Amino acid sequence: MFDNLSYKLDKAFKTLKGTGTITEINVASTVKEIRRALIDADVNYKVAKEVTDSIREKALGRDVLISVSPGQLLVKITQEELTALMGGSKEDINIKGDPSVILISGLQGSGKTTFSGKLASYLKKQGRQVLLVACDIYRPAAIDQLKVLGEQIGVEVYAEPENKNALQIAERAIEYAKKSGKKTVIVDTAGRLAVDEQMMNEIAELKLQLNPSETLFVVDSMTGQDAVNTAKTFDERLNFDGVVLTKLDGDTRGGAAISIRHVVNKPIKFISTGEKMENLDVFYPDRMAQRILG
Ligand code: GDP
């Protein structure tokens, strides 16, 4: 994960090796390299500039202790700034209501259905009674995919394969959950290959009518700046509560993880690092910053 970015940042800090003091000149060249590394990793230019300006300011404002080299100090400040940029501390999903409804949104192929299964398994392990609902009405295979996942993790899946009305399916599923004592309902919705009006209307309607306690936006981290732009578009229509970044196990450059929180102002809540049901992690900004810095 982020190998290239970690390597370039490490190289940037090494330019300070052998220097005993922080000066405007040596900090400026390191900060320039940090900025270039972030931009190469697909971090939005404005975000990269803001964060590196802040790193420079803080570095120049701090006294270097005898025990800390300028390089170590810059690493520490960069880690603090990246952590803050990614949200500071972890944020939990909201689960309330009887049943509590969690709506899953995103483009097709982003990993929505896989994540729905993972979230169900994660919540089940916390002792919750979960119902998965198949509302991806345009992709018949999605229903089967969810059923297979449900069987694998021991979670019931509600589906109406012949019904093309997502809202009706979800409402009936919630009724069913009430009757069968399921306290948490996860609704997997339809996605398209690109944002389109019909999809947006449909998911916005689901959110309005179902009144979920949590709406999550799932996005493929490999799509870089597109991930951030898509998140912005979805948020403008949906005002979602949190982001799920998927495919962090792949050859992702890291830009989405670093900039999404700052650009969209919504927290990343989970990261997905593989196709298996156990490849799900709660997102901790400080741990991610540590990983980025290698
Ligand atoms: P949906 O169309 O948004 O429901 O996407 P799917 O859940 O069907 O996922 C699309 C593809 O990405 C599938 O082949 C999944 O196995 C795969 N996938 C999902 N999440 C991850 C992940 O975190 N890492 C990797 N490597 N593959 C993933």
From TrEMBL:
The keyword Oxidoreductase does not apply. One of its GO terms (molecular function) is GTPase activity. Its EC number is 3.6.5.4. Keywords: Cytoplasm, GTP-binding, Hydrolase, Nucleotide-binding, Ribonucleoprotein, RNA-binding, Signal recognition particle. The keyword Ligase does not apply. Residues 267-280 form the SRP54-type proteins GTP-binding domain. GO terms for cellular component: signal recognition particle. Its main location: cytoplasm. It catalyses: GTP + H2O = GDP + phosphate + H(+). It is found in: Cytoplasm. One of its GO terms (biological process) is SRP-dependent cotranslational protein targeting to membrane. GTP binds at residues 106-113, 188-192, 246-249. Involved in targeting and insertion of nascent membrane proteins into the cytoplasmic membrane. Binds to the hydrophobic signal sequence of the ribosome-nascent chain (RNC) as it emerges from the ribosomes. The SRP-RNC complex is then targeted to the cytoplasmic membrane where it interacts with the SRP receptor FtsY. Part of the signal recognition particle protein translocation system, which is composed of SRP and FtsY. Belongs to the GTP-binding SRP family. SRP54 subfamily. Composed of three domains: the N-terminal N domain, which is responsible for interactions with the ribosome, the central G domain, which binds GTP, and the C-terminal M domain, which binds the RNA and the signal sequence of the RNC. This is Signal recognition particle protein. It comes from Anditalea andensis. The chain holds residues 1 to 294 of 446 of the full protein.
